[in-house]
Amino acid sequence: MRVQAFGSFDAARHPRVAVLVEGLRDSGVEVDVCNAPFGLTTAERVRMLQQPWRLPLLVLRILRSWLTLARTARTLPRPDAVLVGYLGHFDVHLARLVHRGVPIVHDMLVFAGDTAADRGAGGLKQKLLRGLDRAAVRASDLTVVDTAEHQAMLPSGARSVVVLVGAPDTWLAPAPEARDGRLKVVFFGLYTPLQGAPVIGEALALLGDQVDVTMIGRGQDLAETKRLAGGARVDWRDWVEPGDLPGIVREHDVCLGVFSPTGKGMRVVPNKVYQGAAAGCALVTSDSAPQRRVLGDAAVFVPPGDPRGLADALLELDKDRARLLALRTAAHDLAARAFTPQAVVQPLLEALSEGSA
């Protein structure tokens, strides 16, 4: 089987497509990559969709990317299926034009309407963005999502498959070993509302200087998170190169997940949970159905939106180092078994093997 990974995705910023490509190749599938990134972050794309006066720039970026994609696609062998990468709501329509007669698989992962609502958009914008989601699904023969909760949001009759986000092989660390010294906690992300970073900020204020915390990234809720954290013991880092991030996370005992009580926050299992597990960290994240289903006993769950619950969970791990090591080991073993690229793509391979995608 030959699959072409097609679209404007940025695998360095968003490793989801890299996981799918790596997993397909590890499973014996020939994968060609036809890629021309827009050069825009997720936040910039959403902002452009929310603010119509920014759309001409988005259209210009799309046209430039599409020209490159169309030219490159003609130089590659004809695929058996086309996989349109994450944030490909527009790309899926070009894929349908360029690859006539070839099954189109769209890795939806993020719903434009859902993401915009999480960031405060509503009314007409909400309707337009939900229409964008529906159009992308209609243009696809198979839609890939990451949780059953997201699958339930698809239009009735849409063919779909759930594929966990997983973690690139570069994240998988050696088996964890006991560490001495202060508890080291890490969070990394874009500070979007679904991540609930202000909840973390409030928890940090409660912890004061009792644990060492590294907060990596920047985004919408960063300023509020810093304000709420007050004088807590925190190493704030605006940016870390993607290639350096796995090594930095491995130096910590605990990786924080998401803590928002919003609808979107309750439907996701974020990248950082999979990656933190592969890095050998204990996981502390919100108590939600998809996270419990995926992580089972390999994580500590706290009520969403509860800074006191989060602070108490971290203090308990600081006091009980045997439990901390057991959780780190359980998360690592789960990642090695179920979160590798080859493991997560199995449902996608089964869907492709059923016939025309």
Question: Could you provide a short overview of the structure?
Answer:
The protein has 357 residues and is α/β, with parallel strands linked by helices. It contains 16 helices and twelve strands.
What's the helix and strand layout?
Elements (H helix, E strand, L loop, with lengths): L1 E6 L8 H11 L3 E6 L6 H9 L4 H21 L5 E4 L6 H8 L5 E4 L4 H7 L4 H16 L3 E4 L2 H4 L8 E3 L21 E5 L8 H11 L4 E5 L5 H8 L4 E4 L7 H6 L3 E3 L14 H8 L3 E5 L2 H7 L4 E3 L4 H13 L1 H18 L2 H4 L1 H8 L4
Parallel strand pairs: 1-2, 1-3, 3-4, 4-5, 5-6, 7-8, 7-10, 8-9, 10-11, 11-12
Helix pairs in contact: 5-6, 8-9, 8-13, 11-14
Helix content: 40-55%
Total number of strands:
12
Indicate the CATH class of the largest domain. Answer: Alpha Beta
Task: Specify the number of helices.
Answer: 16
Q: Reading side by side through the largest sheet, how are the strands ordered?
A: 2-1-3-4-5-6
Determine Rg (CA atoms, Å).
20 Å
Report the CATH superfamily of the largest domain. Answer: Glycogen Phosphorylase B
Tally of individual domains: 2
Global outline: globular
The CATH architecture classification of the largest domain is: 3-Layer(aba) Sandwich
- Pairing-aware structural class of the strands and helices? alpha/beta
Strand content: 5-15%
Stated plainly, the CATH topology of the largest domain is called Rossmann fold
